[in-house]
Every structure is written in structure tokens, then in C-alpha cells.
Amino acid sequence: DSILLLHEVPVLGLLYLDFAEFEETVKVFTKECKIKGKPLPKPAGVSSRDLKALSVQKDLLTAFENGEQKVFFQLWEEHISPSVQDDEPVAQKLEFYLHIHFATYLLKHSMGKPDKTELEERISHFKAYLETKGASLSQTTEFLPFYALPFVPNPMVHPSFKELFQDSWTLDLRTRLEKFLSLTLKAGQTPLKFHPLYKKMLQHLHQQLVESEQRTMTYLKRFNKMQADYHNLIGVTAELVDSLEATVNGKMITPEYLQSVCVRLFSNQMRQSVAHSIDFTRPGTASTMLRASLGPMKMQDVPLLPSLDYEKLKKDLITGNDRLKAFLLQALRWRLTTSYPGEQRDTVLQAYITNDLLDCHSSCQRSVLKLLHSKSEVVRQYMARLINAFASLAEGRVYLSQNPMLLQMLEERLKAEDKDSLTWENVLGALQKFSLRRALQSAMIKDGLIFWLVDVLTDTDCLSDYTLEYSVALLMNLCLRSAGKKMCARIANHVLRVLSDLLGHENHEIQPYVNGALYSILAIPSIREEARAMGMEEILRCFIKEGNAEMIRQIEFIIKQLNSEEPLNDSIASDDEEEEDEEEDHDIMEADLDKDEVLQPQLGELAGEKLLTTEYLGIMTHTPKTKKKLFPGVHQSIDEPLQRPVTPGYHRTAYLM
Fold first, then answer.
1. End-to-end CA distance of the chain
2. Whole-structure pTM value
């Protein structure tokens, strides 16, 4: 009974269109329903608008245009029902913007010399609204910046609020107000929400909501269990480290202590009584039981993948048709992304590098790297994905960095591809990982990539979560260098405005990189001065009210940096002179490398590992190479903004641990 029947949909649709006054749409909709034999409600007499409603609407619009705040909100409270004001998101958002309109009205219409007493009164009224009725929207990214408005000395010149003082903003708000009043004050029609079909649809949606909440609770329980296991594991690990330290000082570990540790580890794997009954005095018993309980694949059980004929592979990558090229690039990437970390993956990567798979050492006119400029969008995308996979591994970055032209090719593709394409996303991901290497950082800064990134981040609506995170993280890595800071000083106002807007972005994964970039560039006195002029401290303090403990502590560090009077010190000014080859060991294969595969094999087509081992099998020439010892990374307090280059994938999985 709660299910909305298909034959009822046209009726409900027509009722909504008629209620919302889509007159032309109603005509077309009615005509098509008649042609297709769909049932329609019997026509009802069209009632004229209530004259009183028209009069109230006119008075409200007049008060809006004349800035008569008291008159407007008196009429608003009198004629807009409390249920609409309190329960309808559209009404709540509109009312918020109306309060902004009246709070800034005098600044807009007094030629820069408003009556101070009246202006203070309006600002006080706006503050009172924010603390009471408007407080519910403080969790919304759209409105969060406006909570700083009453505290900014001159909002007309503040970059975050300039839009409020443009005629187009006021005109747009008036149009929205007029449409809202037309629907809300309209008399003589039954509101859509009281129609029986609408109620039936609500019941159906409610049932779906209940089922979704049940599923959410199931996943939440699983997550809580995983989190509890994780904390238990960390606790046991800490105890074992303490025990190892004690053994160094000659204190022996007793079998009873070992048994108590294993009981805790086995608590979710088997009955504790079983764990109690095992004889842990026998060497190897505890470790054997632990491995058996988890059942991971032992390293000796992981086979090396078959060797390939790289000469034939490279020939077909250059001379084959576009579909074959794309399938080969996909298969080669899958070899990297799906292989087990350790010897299996290391052997795959070393085979690629030893055989110069991407022609990084080749000076030929036709090379595999030139596939980045292919006319086929799919080939370009799959080439970018493979390069991004290479760049995910430290040894892969060393290999790619040996080609002097690759960075320039990637930068060209970044500016040529559509921002919503997977090609663009993977090129950006590769460049972000390149920024872990100082020489490549220097080249990107010199090429003006900071200016380009700041422009891209001005409008984040068209960016996916991946591209947003990697764009901000790349900007931060470049800002950590003194040359990057100096570039930012040339566009200080622009970069500060962009970063302050990003502080309130709904994607909280970017916060560590925004904080890191801000903290870094505020080491430059001229940028600090610009930040103070635009009221940066007030904006930051707004986010302290809303942020989590870690975010709050990082922002406190940024505010301290902002208020510092220290001149540009020598170490910051000269860090570019110390070009070091070492980089931190960030080997993370993110799942996004294999997402949204556009290439699917047709019947009879070979793909993936089957394509490689059927057509390109080579002589067994596995020679696992000892990995170059990489810089292990500097650990810093999570209370401080990031001060070392990172990738989002590594930061998520390793940095906080």
C-alpha cells in the first residue's frame, strides 16, 4: 500500500507542475499524457490570486529595495508561517541571505559614508541572528565564511565578501525572494504536501530511508569493530616494544606474559579458553597460531609473474592500432597495481625499468612516452594512468625523472586536457607524486605551476575529490620550498583568498594540505602583512569554533605564524641551494588508478594478464634488484601543519599512524 504505483506518477507530476505555475510545461505534459493514454486529474477551476497576498508581496519587495529592515522582518514574521521558516531549507537559506542584504545595505547605498550608529545597530542585529536563528547553518560550507562578516573592518574590499556588494548579487537575491513569495503567499490551492499521492510517495521514501539507515548501522558496527581491533593491536604492539626494550636490559619475558598477550590478540579469532589451553612455552607456537588465525599469503607462496618480450611489447605500443595500444597500457598497469607489495611488485617494476618500457632513455623520434600526445583520448588516458602508477613507487619516480622532457610533456597535457577527464586527473596525480623530488619541485616552480594551480583552485566545483586533494597537496609541496614561497608572494592576495576559501571546503581530506601551505607561505613577511590586511586571523578563528581538535591545534600554529614579527631567516632564503637526491619512501598504490575503466574487451578479445602471457611471453629473465635505500621520512607532531612533502595516499595510510 505504501508503494507509489506507476500510473499515479503522471497525476502527481501534473499536480506539482500546476502548483509551481509551469504553465507551458503543463500544456505539453497534458498533451503527451492524452496521446499515451495516461490518467490525469479532473480539471479544477483556476482561482485568482488573493489580493491581500499580492499586497503583502509588494510591501515585502518594497521594504527589500529600500533597505527597511524592521518593516521587512515584521511582515516576514507575520505572513510566512513558522513551519515554513523552521522546516523548509529554501526558506532558511533565503532568510540568511536577506539578513546579509540588510546588514550590508548602508555600506552599498551611502557612498562609503554610512551612519555609524545605524550601521552598528544593523551589524548587532545580524550578530544576534547568527547566534540564534542562523546558528543552525553554521555547519554548512556555503554559509560558514559569512560568520566572520561582522568582525571584518571593511568587508567591501575583503576578497571573500566583494561579491555581496555587486548589483548582480542583489538582483539575484530579489528574484529568488519574489519567486519564493509567489509560491508561499499563493492562495486558493491545496499545498502539494497535503495531496494523498504525495503522502504515499513520502511513505515509500520513508521506507527506503529506514532500510538505508539499517544498512548504515550494519556498516557502522563493522567499522567500530575494526577500529576496536586496531586500537587493541596498537596497544599490544606498544607493550611488546616495551618488553623488547626490557629484554635488552636483561629482563626475561615469561610464558605467562606471552600467553596473556596472545589471549588479547585471539579474542576475536577464537574462544579465549582455546588460547589459554595452548602451550606457549614451545618456540614458534604463538607466531604459528597468529598466522593461522589471519591466514595471509606467505611470501614464499607469492609466485613471480611470467617474464615478457619487451621488445615486441614496445614495438606494438608504437606501431599497433589504438585499441591494441590501450589494452597493452591497461595490462601493464594492472601488473603493477594488482601485484603483491614486496618481491612480486619489485620484480615487475625492475623488469619495466631494466627494459626501459616507457623509453625514458630513448632519443628516438617515435617513443612510448609520445603516446601522451596520441590523437586517441583513450590511449592518452591509459598512458597517463600507467605513468601515474609508475610515479606511485619511489623507484618508478627515479626512473621517470631521468627523462628531461617528461615533466614538460605532463605540464602541457595538464593545460590541454579537460578538467573533468580521467587523463587530466592522472596527469595531475603523477605531477603531485613528482613533487616529492626536489629537482622536479624546482622545475615545476620555475615553470609557474603555482600560478596555474591557484587559478584552478579558485573554482573547485568542477574538480573530483581526487583532483582536488592532489591539486592542493601539490600546491603545498611547492610552497614548502623558498622559491615557491617567493612565487606566492607575487600573488599574495590571490593565493591567500583561495586558501582561506578552501579552509571551509566540505572535503575535509584537504585540510592538512591547506594548513601546511598557509603555514609555509606565512613565513614570508610581505605575505603576513597582506594576510593581516584582509582579516585572516578573524577568518581562522571562525574555523577554530567549527574544527576538530587536530584542525584547531594546526590553526593555532598558523595564527602564531601570522602574528610573528620574525624577518625572512637565512635557512628559508637558502633552502634551494641544498639540492638533495634523497626522497621519502612513499610507495602507495591508490585504488583510483584502476577506477572507471572505459576499455572493455569484446567477445574473443584478450585483455590484462591473459593478453600479456598469450602474445608477449618472454624468456625467464627475472633478476630482482635490491631496492635503493630511501629516506625513511621525518615524523612530526600531528598538532603542527605539514612541513615535509607528502602525497594524499601516503598521508592517509601512513602519516597519522
1. 52
2. 0.55
